[in-house]
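To: structure subgroup
Subject: Chain for Friday's discussion

All,

I'm putting the inputs and outputs inline so they're searchable in the archive.
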Amino acid sequence: MKRMILRLLPVTLLIVGAPLPGAPVSEQLRERIIADARGMPATAVKFVRTTKSVRSGGGSVTKIDKTERWDGRRWTLLAVDGQKPTAEQRQEAEKLAATMPVPGYHRMAELIAAATDSDTDAQGRTVLKIPKLPAGSVRTDSADISSHLQAELTLALRDGVPWVERVKVTARESFRMNLLIKVSSFEQVSEYRLDGSGKPKLSSQSADSAGTMFGFPGGEKSVVTYVYR
């Protein structure tokens, strides 16, 4: 199956308590997180991304191990399976990068705007719920599958200020990517951590999908890590 890649599209200090289970999302809470996200554009970060995945289907297994660098302006493919990339691999990576927004906390501004409900988890943390992701939130290398997905955003507090610590995206139903591929399950988890200056940054993503291609079962598991420079 084709890999599914999450593309997640300072104001006055607000002290926001956890909403009651099932409560609407507070506009103050929403605006606080949007303001923080917009204050951390993709051009302001530099990182190295490592992707490791295993794809199965049609009786074969494909392993992918690649390392890329984002320098605040453009992507550079550094290695594929521990080796220097070929010209063809670099060209393919550049073509894919041109269709994909840079991942990071800045994408939270678009995502949080779609949250309609809130709850609390077992640890007492606020969880915002998105019943259907906005268009462009999650793409594969050939299609936008956002309308088939939902999400839960788990919040944490930094000096009384809320920020998104975890985003869990799951399938709303089984769906088709095209005439050949049917997805029966999909889950992607993005983890964010505070850096030394207290700003949240994407630290890792994991994804697990399953379905059928040409009628044969298959799927993909992947882990992506980010190291900031």
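Points worth raising on Friday:
The longest strand covers residues 181-194.
The helical segments are 27-38, 87-97, 108-112.

D.
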